[in-house]
Automatic annotation (TrEMBL):
Family matches, as Gene3D superfamilies: Ribosomal protein S20
Keyword annotations: Ribonucleoprotein, Ribosomal protein, RNA-binding, rRNA-binding
HAMAP family: Ribosomal_bS20 (MF_00500)
Residue ranges, annotated region (Disordered): 1-27, 61-84
SUPFAM superfamilies: Ribosomal protein S20 (SSF46992)
Source domain of life: Bacteria
Role, per record: Binds directly to 16S ribosomal RNA.
Name the UniProt record assigns to this protein: Small ribosomal subunit protein bS20
GO biological process, one term: translation
């Protein structure tokens, strides 16, 4: 258990950040599933829209260090053919 007020505050902050990061990661997974589903249906407009949303969310998550930037770039490269 924490011994100081500062340690208790750190624990509270970590819990808040962890919850937020979980939500962001979950949203990324949902967007990735939407891209995959749009690819499977063959609807190019829907696939482009889903890919754009996924790329934007990946960039934002990488910028705030929720996911590694190289991971974001790798995933963006795999869906980039849909955006064009």
């Amino acid at each position: 258990m924490a011994n100081t007020k500062a340690s208790l505050k750190d624990i509270r902050q970590i819990e808040k950040r962890t919850e937020h990061n979980k939500q962001v990661r979950s949203r990324l997974k949902t967007l990735a599933r939407k891209v995959k589903a749009a690819r499977a249906t063959g609807d190019s407009d829907q696939a482009k829209s889903a890919a754009r949303d996924y790329i934007a969310a990946s960039d934002k998550a990488a910028k705030s260090s929720i996911i590694h930037p190289n991971k974001a770039n790798r995933h963006k490269a795999s869906v980039s053919d849909l955006v064009r």
